[in-house]
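Section 5.1 Outputs to date
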Amino acid sequence: MWKATTLGDWMKNRVSELSSAKPVVEDIIARVAGEGDRALFDLSRQFDRVVPDSLQVSSEDVEEAYSQVDTQVVESLIDAESRISRFCELQLPKGLWLEEVEPGVILGVKTTPLERIGAYIPGGRASYSSTALMCTIPARIAGVGSICCCSPPPISPLTLVAMDIAGVDEIYAVGGAQAIAAMALGTESIRPVQKIVGPGNIYVTMAKMLMRDRVEIDFPAGPSEIVVLADEAAHPEFIAADILAQAEHDPRAANLLVTTDPDLPGRVGVHIETGMRDSERAGILEEAMTHAGYIIVDSMDEAIAIVNQASAEHLSLQVADPMTILKGVKNAGAIFLGSYAAVACGDYASGTNHVLPTAGYARIHSGLDVQHFCKRSTVQMISREGLLGMADIVETLADAEGLPAHARSVRIRRDKP
């Protein structure tokens, strides 16, 4: 099960079968577009085997959820919210900046938060209270006016409490591709949003991709994955623990060890076997580990090249000098430096975000942060002096492009003080 692999085989195994989901998702989107709330109730009965009394979760239901969650857990969610908020506040851009770049020409950028966003919070195999925090706190810190969440029914009390702590305005018991369609298109109960964020299965991910003509999304985010880059200084038990932690998310999770130490994979394998025997989620782990493996390389340069090709969701640098290795890393969703930087810390409490691009999308996407919930407008203030300084350039280029009205719009200003 724990075996040597190649980067090509590992990457091939982690690609989601999105294409197989497309016909089903297209049908779901069409139903939501045509039937609205009625489709949401019918699809909930079909896929979730549950029909909620109401699509929207009431404030009384949220209040009741607190009584069903242990006090220590609630306190931990509050502490996690504080840590995530602290890091998000560090990311806040200036609302407006202006700078005079030459006499009479002032340029700048105005940053404006989105007015309404939607977050998809998965259900099913676990209660994803941490994902509720990760998806919505950056939006709140960014200044988004209205935040709604959709999650498959029945939503666990733990997730409801987390949504409340995060400051979510509206909660809907709607799951799957139909939730994405509802937030994008709007129904009788759910107002449309400008952007949808959050991870999900292949149907949710496909729905997000298909709805991009109506709503912006964060990025495709599918089954969890980790690449561990390690040398002889690494602790094999720590590596095994990180791999199993990501593997227990999903049977299709993808995990890879890249190492310059030829003896390390065998020692890691022993701890993986022990951890799997002791786990309550052994069935998920066993299937996920069929997608796992290790690559032994001759040099750290070769290892870094593999890491950059892999473009993993999580990259753990368990090496003697992680700062030096970090300089060579180009593609990764989140990077964890040193043996004690457990990936689970980023999942819950360090303050960084665990909603990250998977399946190689870290090559072109960044993980969820405050910037995802803002849009930017450029600003320019030009005096007559500034206009005269660039008039010749504008008129010359406009005439060269065959756009005389562009040139005239500058020329008439040049001629009139």
